[in-house]
Amino acid sequence: MPVLQVRRSCRASWACAALAFALLPCLSNAQTGPSQLTSNTVIGGNVKQHANAVLAIMTYTTVPDVTTSNLSVNNGATGNPGFGQTQFGGGFTISKSFPLYLEGTLAYSRYDPIFIATDGSQQRAVPTKWNTFSGTVGVGWDFRITDELAFRPILNGTIGRVSSDLKVGQTLFNHVTDRNLQFLENGSLDAYGYGGSLMLDYEHYRENYEIDAELRATDIYLRSFGGSSEAVQGSAMAQQVSLWTRWRAPTGWHALDRPVRYVLEAAYSHYFGDSAGVLGFNDLTSLGVGLELDSSKYPIIITRTRAMVRYVFGHNVHGVSFGFAMSF
């Protein structure tokens, strides 16, 4: 059974940032089937198709999400990491009197497809390394339905780049003229995205416990532009519905002159459009438990620090991760 590794960036009504370290390796058998062998070709080497797949995978980094912020999937045939991504980000509302909502994420992903090249007389495996960097910003406004419930429309914009680094096998490509292959040798692909999200944000805070919940629907369109190879162009649609909940309550312990809280989390994400099935699943569920330190009594920018352990599962995938988050 494949194993999945996941980490989520922190989410709260205040500015948040999170960093996490994945604990378990991940497995996935998602190798593209080889095409028919002919002279001067790449077996299974539809580079444009693979590049479009990278663009579709980039859709997972466009929204702060507990289920996919840190993701690692191994190739089931080789046991080596075939794809991995890490995201850093968060969001906050400035204040109830000025309910402007701002969010942002920075993400890095790595995709290592393997192509088989031939010049008609010999064949050779050609491992490549594709690195993806992307950033997403969001600007929204809170419309208060009640004192504890807000409706939040958000405008999102994304910019990203995919770069290819061909490590070995260049000599076999010297006789290949297909322009699709130009992308493999130190090529690049730029992408931009635009769209929006609709969110319901519920905050129920009491002295003995705190409840947070967010229901979010996101639709962001990604399209490539520029790049070193005109043949490698494409587009993808990021469509996602997610529900995230958190319960916090005092443990009875004290530190930094404040109660130490235990934290319980549950989240569910369902993917539509080009995000659906690109990594072998359409939805993921996350269950987390952790502890939170409150440093708000002291004159420092960090008000709360959380350590979380999460179990994530979906169709034929599961995994465990450790998360570390801060609120400001």
Automatic annotation (TrEMBL):
It comes from the Bacteria. Residues 1-30 form the signal peptide. Keywords: Signal. This is Autotransporter-like protein. It comes from Paraburkholderia panacisoli.
